[in-house]
Amino acid sequence: MNHLAVNISMIFTEVPLIERFALAKKHGFRHVEIQFPYVLSISDIQKQLDENELSLCLINVPTGDLMQGGCGLASILEKATEFRLALEQAIDYAKALQVPSVNILAGKQPTHLEYSTCFETLVKNLRLASVMLSEHDIQPVFEMINGKDMPNFLIQTIEQAHQVLNAVQHPALKMQFDCYHMQMMDENILQALHKNIHQIGHIQFADCIGRHEPDTGSIPFAEIFSWLKQSSYTGFIAAEYKPSEHSENSFVWKSKYFP
């Protein structure tokens, strides 16, 4: 599978972000994803990509206070202007760095707002993002995140993701499918992939429980990777896990499943 990627926001954290590109190349990766690349300049990222013969396959739209425990931007009507500015920043990076996909995180439902209100705002923002990103041939995706790790996250299940797709009604918008989050929500991953593969634009993986590298938990990665290799899916599949030991010692799965 040529589209195997490594998330250098979660892996190789033993060194600064700017040094992780070289480690990705060292371990045989051709593609990387970065959750929030905005701490680095576009020129610095491009230099690292060029020097290490890498492509950047996914970034996230900035999420405001979400990673600090807040509710984020995409589902809060009062933050519409802030969301649009964040979206424009993501587009600037994606265009310059030729990033094929951008992830829009729904964020959390605040205690003072109804779910329906937040959902309506999210739909409007995802529609806007889908229009703006697709104008530049960038794939918009949105992610389901389990409510155990992130309580009150607005979109947690595949059923909710289908509701989003049906409401947004934009042909470019697809799901970002994270095997770890789906296992945490008690989904049957193989069945879910088989049923929804044509609506999935990006795949990530970590084992469960613990969110460590494959074969440290209960997810049947041998079956999942085998099925994906034979499926019609042509997108990226990215390692996004917290290494159970030093990052550089966490790639036994790579030689096993992607020799």
What does this structure look like?
InterPro entries: HyI-like, Sugar_Epim/Isomerase, Xyl_isomerase-like_sf, Xyl_isomerase-like_TIM-brl. Residues 21-245 form the Xylose isomerase-like TIM barrel domain. This protein has a single domain (4-252), classed as Divalent-metal-dependent TIM barrel enzymes (TIM Barrel, Alpha-Beta Barrel), CATH 3.20.20. It has helices at residues 20-26, 42-51, 80-97, 115-134, 158-168, 179-184, 189-196, 221-230, 252-257; strands spanning 4-7, 31-33, 55-60, 101-104, 139-143, 174-178, 200-205, 237-239. Helices cover 37% and strands 14% of the residues. It has 259 residues and is an alpha/beta fold.
How would you summarize what this structure contains?
This protein is of the alpha/beta class and 259 residues long.
CATH architectural designation: Alpha-Beta Barrel
Return the CATH topology.
TIM Barrel
Mean pLDDT: 98
Q: Kindly state the percentage of residues in helix.
A: 25-40%
- The CATH homologous superfamily is named Divalent-metal-dependent TIM barrel enzymes
